[in-house]
Description:
By secondary structure, this protein is an alpha/beta fold. The protein folds into two domains: 4-81 and 172-264, P-loop containing nucleotide triphosphate hydrolases (Rossmann fold, 3-Layer(aba) Sandwich); 96-169, no CATH class. Helices cover 37% and strands 24% of the residues. It is built from nine helices and ten strands. Helix 6 (186-199) links the parallel strand 7 and strand 8 (204-208). It is globular and about 55 Å long. 38% of the residues are buried. The chain binds adenosine-5'-triphosphate (ATP) and magnesium ion. Residues 44-45 line the site of magnesium ion.
Amino acid sequence: MAGSRLVVEKLSVGFGGLLALDGVSMSVARGEIVGVIGPNGAGKTTLFNVICGFVRPDAGSLTYCGVPLWRHRPHDLTRLGIARTLQGVGLCTGLTVLENVMLGAQPTLRSDIGSSFFGLWRSSREERLVAARGLEVLDQLGAADYARHLPSALPYAIQKRTALGRVLMAEPKLLLLDEPASGLSNDEMDELATLIRSLKDDMGVLLVEHHMDLVMSVCDRLVVLNFGQVIADGTRESVRANPEVATAYLGDEVHESAGKQGTSDGA
Ligand SMILES: Nc1ncnc2c1ncn2[C@@H]1O[C@H](COP(=O)(O)OP(=O)(O)OP(=O)(O)O)[C@@H](O)[C@H]1O
Ligand SMILES: [Mg+2]
């Protein structure tokens, strides 16, 4: 598929007798934000884990930027141009916000962090360039003012931006976000929605998220899973209007969210 960042075809994953994913096909195009939603146990995290290489599928295929993704492992992702943020923040508490972000430019050297942070770069010139890029990324995320602070002293939303900044340093082609809104207040979630939309550019974004308001305000397209199967794949409007989706999961929540769309669509 032209312009596709990720194509998932007929993916199946079984755990014992249970089919967590049952013939799932979906895609993320360049510059597209795709949300994966569904009720508890629908298979969202399993899909995320297969894409990240944590879980091996029993059947089906993955294609990334036109190339089959086969037997990859989580540590291959950065090299491939795939970035993921996990539910927590996972920052180094002894480093400043900027230094944490700078680590994203040196993914293969992170294990050296115990020896010397500043030893990560081959030269002070390289370090200055990485720092300048780190500040740019923090600025893009609205967190440049916190560059010299230690993350533990900052609001959780800023810590999450720092974690996002770190993965953006590798300039990914595909960004995988696992429940980025967890732990955020409603206002912070609105800011996150604006931020994600400002980021996408030519990157593809896959967003697994429980918070319907965020998904509905930020995603170009939604994939709905239920019992491991795709029951809907389309625009927010088509998903909202899909009775099977309403029955399976969204219920009143989707209609509530639809009522708010007049204000959040432009995010
Ligand atoms: N490692 C595992 N071993 C056994 N069963 C598992 C494992 N991981 C997931 N499952 C099962 O597979 C199904 C899909 O789980 P998954 O975690 O992907 O759902 P989910 O959509 O992420 O749910 P939630 O919204 O609760 O996070 C569930 O029935 C779950 O119990
Ligand atoms: Mg899950």
